[in-house]
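To whoever is covering the structure queue this week,

Two jobs came back overnight. Logging them here so there's a record in the thread.

Job A:
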Amino acid sequence: MIRGGRSYVKSPPSFSNDAKKLLVCTGNNVSVFSAATGLQITSLEGHTAPVTTLIVVPASSAAQKILCYCWTASLDGTIRHWDFSGPELLKTVDAQVPIYSMVIPCLLSEPQQLDSSKLVAYVSVEDTSLVKEGSKELRGHIRRFNLAKERLPRGDTLKETEEPKSIVISPSGEFFGIHHKCKIHVWGVPSGGGSRNALAKKMTLHHTKVINAFAFHPTERIIAAGDVTGRVLIWRSFGNRKLALASQKKNARSMVDLDNPGVRDGDDAESCTTWHWHSAEVNVLNFSSDGAYLYSGGREGVLVVWQLDTGKKKFLPRIGSPLLYFIWSPEPTLSSVVCADNQIHLLKMPSMEISRTISGIKPPPSLPKMYEGLSSTVAFDRSSGIAALCTENYCVQLYNLLNDRGISEVQVCERNHQPGDEITVVVTAVALSLDGSVMSTTEVKLPEDGIGGLVSLKFWESEPDNKTFTLSTIVYEPHKDAGVSAIAFHPTRSMAVSTSFGGDFKIWVCNSDKSQTEKDSSWICHAVGSYKKKPMTAAAFSGDGTVLAVAAENVITLWNPVKNMLLSVLGATLTPITKLCFVGKSEFLVAASNFPKPELSVWNTSKLSLSWSYGLRIEAVTSAVDSSTFAVLALVPKTFRKSKSKKNIFRGRDGAILLFNGSDPKPVSIWTVMKAQGGSISFLEGDKSQLRLAFVNGSHEYVVFDPSSDDTHERSAIDYEGLVGEEETGDFGYTSLYGQLPDYDKKRKEDAESLATPFISSERPWETIFSGSTLNFPPLQKLCGEFFESLMEKSNSVVE
């Protein structure tokens, strides 16, 4: 089993002491990447819930830079100590509550005098043990724990908030704090941090706007904060009164009566300066290692460098996505910036040139409601295990599912990232040819105030063994003013079909098939077809490519794609068909309908009849090329998931993958999955000896597994009959108009029983032999025998 597509950007990453490795929180694990190549080296596995905090133990000397130790905290309520060079788990501490953030000040302040018995951590946890369901009591707690123990008691609570907050620590380890609404709460770490009586002193800084991020200066008492309006605030000389040591208080001059410019509510700071460049909220703040510069970033996708003394600035523009974190490495010439599109860029400093990018799967695009459920935004190259996924900023990302790494990107239409931009273009579909050499996309430029609007169909081609696609052909308004509902490629030829809600489909061919040079190849229209002017909603080629199935609303039409000749029409389904798929090279065809009455149906194209159907809402259908196996991704009805007997099975999962074999309506296997809505599935057949199934969920997380193996995955124990039986039933067709027809068979049987007269032999059988209904005569042999016997006289004489 291969899992991937996890987010790299939920928590800030961390560099190793030699700056050669980058540790990244990826779900329940920590992935270790090479800073030189951007490839994953190893991973730390053991947590049972997402890892929220990662702390690399710093080296106290140059000789210790080879040491590779780190601490991790997770929502599973444990804190773990690792040697990530192995990797090896060294210690586990049970905090008994989910941990959202953690800092260990003594690792920064006194690394050379570190006493493991006095290792103190300050953690942000969520404690719901005393909170009633639905109440507004404070769930987030800032607590202090002694990591010398393996099972932690409740600990000292420093602060309570409505929800857990992220803790920020100063590079010197002297201060830590949280931002809460319009305030920054700062604690000074006591010198005897391991002592239970050594309490952390606290102060608060106030602002008029909600604060998004803040950072401590590495050497001076300076705090920088960014708010939701894009302002950057600099507080200088904070905590000289409230956080000063006893020896410092005697020499500290009182600032209560002094004019402290920019300082509000008598805060303990000498001054507060405001800078404003960002047009939206500030998410990133970090000082340079020498404290001379401040780095800030936000939704604009621009990294701004401020000179702290003068306020002058320079920029790293066009990063292309909102910024989340900026992290320095122990090597001053290397840093990293983390972006919301699930990418981590490694920067050469001070030029800020992007030297390497660690790319996860980018998140799916935000679609207008009118396109939700109608778009096909994931396609698969079955031979190489590469998926083409539509992402934000009108891109298609090529991602290797087997290696869990990005390959390339295709910019479907140009767009510069700007915060707050309205969606003006929607990429509604992406499709790949069977060999992965050709890709097709459709995009819709939305009309403005009801004026304009444009539909484009594009064909992209790649070189052999190279997944860098270049634009080959663009067709504007391929179906007049109607949108494209589906695209499908021929399995063996350079041919594709596009269907339209306007009532027609078009078959496209590459003119390289017509003795044109490859350099001049382009895609042209080969044929146009329609059926009774019905909307064409789905299409699929047969396994050998000799038959093209096109859904004309709720009717399936079969065509010869070369001659564009209608071969046959299959019976109507209950609702419009949204997906079609031939089952390998067999005669079976799978059709799926969603609204208003969901249905999964399997048709026999040789007999032109329906084999079986289920009332399931289907998100995706896939079939193996060389076998009669097919699989569907179904959304499980809420009524079925919420039943008491099924809650332990689903555990928050909203979908199921059902594996079928040919025309057998009973599934071979069923797997329950999460985030099924918007998901997709496909068989991967690059390795002929092993058939694998890939599932990409609605958040672009994925799993690749062997559907025939019991060792690589957990099969669900749900009953398939109950799964399809829980669907709501209703009247349709004739019944919806005129009601239920009487049961004529039952009535006819009752009438027959009431009219039937039992046959009884008598001395005068001809008087009763024909009594009763003519439909209930005795058998002919019995009837003739009795009749002729009645005509003969019986003789009592005995012949001697």
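Job B:
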Amino acid sequence: MRVLGSRLQSTNFEDPDHVKTLITRKLGSSKSPKYGTKNSDILKFEQLYSKLNQKRKNRTTSKSDLTSILYILYKISNIESDSNSSSELLQTLLQNVDYKEENQEQDMEIDAPHFKPHNENKSGQFQFLKSFRYRSQDISEEALCKDLLYVFQGIDGQNISFSILEDSFVLAPNVNVSESTRKLVTEMCELGWLYKKVNDFMNRNIDSTYCDQVTQSLCFAFQAELTEFYRLIAILENQHQNYDETDPANCLNLRKLYLHIQEPMERMKWLAIIVDSIQGLKGGTIISSIHSYVLHGSPVTKMLLSKLLREVSAPILTMIKTWMIEGELNDPFQEFFVSMDPNVPNDLIWTQKYDLKPSMIPSFLTNDFARKILLTGKAVNFIKKCCHEEDWVLDANEHIPFNADTFSSDENSYSTLQNWVDHAYKVTNKELIELMFDKYQFLTHCRALRKYLLLGQGDFIQNLMDSMVNELSKPAGQLYKYNLLGILESAVRSSNANMTDSEFLKRLDVRLLEASPGDNGWDIFSLDYKIDAPINTILTPEIIQGYLKIFSLLWKLKRVEHSLNKTWVQQTSYKNELYSLKEIRSDLHRCNLLRNEMLHYINNLHSYLQVEVIESEWKKFQEDLDHAEDLYDIMRVQRKFIEVIHKRAMLTHEHIELYQLMIKIFEQIHQFSRTQDILYSSALEEYHKRQSMMDDGDEYSQVISPDASNTLKQLGKYYRANFDKFNEALSILEIDEKYLSFRLDFNEFYKDSRERESISQIHHDHGFDQLDVDHIEDDDDEEDEEEEDEDDEEHINTDVYRMPHGKRGSKGFRPQ
């Protein structure tokens, strides 16, 4: 067992003749007469040594092997546990060796059938010697070099094989070499392990039908590297085959082999690192993984990785070139950073059919750079499929040649690629923008929307409003679209809108919204503008809906303005008749004041929306269009135009309270107009009755109910309260809305009124008489009259103009 646990090595006995002398002395001192005389044992040993020496001369056994064999025999004879038995074992070995000629080419073996142990001790020694041949084996450096050359190619050698358990090539445990030699061999075996990893990766992917193009390019790049590696192995094998001990300078030994493989091992390490880093990746992610190592400090390593990067980038760069020039996307393995949805129709090419895959963008391309590539290919497809310009071809190479096969990681290649992409991007999108503005007249469509949906064509809108009043006053169920279309055409013909190109006028249409119970025509009517391809890519249904939302507010505002103007025209037309009735002059005066306040609010709000909001944003919109570089920029400018108008016109969700206050004020103005219509109608009826009664000599006539004054007071009170809320809400918003608040109360009239009401309320709460605060109130007669009548009625009654009978005397009308 000591022999099994020890390392038998002739480190102190390098000369076989010296070991031979030691063994001869040992045999001479043996005292066992059973196996022959001392001289006979020495003679047999001499014969054995002569035969072993002959094998060495024939190169069957090396000098070191001969020394090792003799040293083992000598060590066996020196086992201290049983020196007599050891000597007898050595004698038994010599006695049982068969020296026949036919066994000269075989390794030295122990003839077990001829061994007849005399006791168990000798039997155990023989079994140990028999197993020792399989546990310990000397090997020459030449044989190790030969095995290593096989290992470098991933092939098991005679003494070095691949261990699945250890996942590495290992030297057989029964090989008897020094620790330093074993360590050196183990280090060189790493090259075989690296080669095996790279070669296995190539075998799995290079001929696979499911392998993506980038991975296949990487495999071919690996194959080129391995070809150089095979050339080195061939050179080393040639040196090994021409091995000559007499010429040590040209012979291949372990240390020379170690030096030869340093550079190939370093390159193979990087190939293996790349194999590990791209597991589960494909396309652009593989390129990004390799690119992350390119900035390595070693020039040799950087050159290797740059070469690999050039090879794996070639498929993606070819896809980029094909996509940007022809608009075609040939990507069967989904490895390009531009994706396509084949189920999306061509009408949605720009918005939905193509998109970016950020994870697939190679790391040497920025997101903005990838976006330019995407937009250029989109533009090519849009020009050919949506604008029907199939013959248009982009020839970017005419100005900036670019070859995907010569791309590398240096700055010049990046600069060339960037210049080529920028040129293709500018040329393609310039062509597309010219088509949209010239062939499809996008800006003219925008002007038509500005005129009709944003009420920019004033005479047309006024004619339309005048013509629609009667029709839209009907219940929603009694409205018919063909009647409204006839009115719309009449309004166009009777205004300057008739001068517009018929191509755009025919797109103007009427839209009836879904009606709710109690709705009339005003609630469901809207103008519409029809858009078709390819303009609908920019003027999408969402954009048109944004225009209609603005139209709805402007149309409500225009209707309120129209109703107030109508009441003013009505009062002006019948001024003499109405003011002849002295008892309603105060009511008429109150109507004038309230109408003027309402007109002040409506006119300033209308001016703010049309001038400060729409007109100013329209100017910015045109300026931004001049700087648009692609279709996305045009879409962004168009969307921004609508969103800013919505925000400044208080149509967004954050302005919902202001919008509700506006609508409430509009409703109160409509109620005021209806109330004034009833007042004027009743007054005119009374006027005509009085005229007829004067002609007939009748002394009796109707009187106008005093409830009219109370109704107007209540309307004024509620309108003022909502107006104050609206103005206060404006004052805390952004600068544009604050400017509207300033315009509505430029002389602080409403602010002073609120302060007077506040002071009046404080004195009222403390029990002061009304006369005690007269010195701080305005002396305006109208205000005094409102203070006196403030508590007469608490509710609005629109039907308050009753005409009780009265009598007319010679001095005028006296109420009963």
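Note for Job B: The first strand starts at residue 137 and ends at 138.

Please reply-all if you pick these up so we don't duplicate work.
Q.
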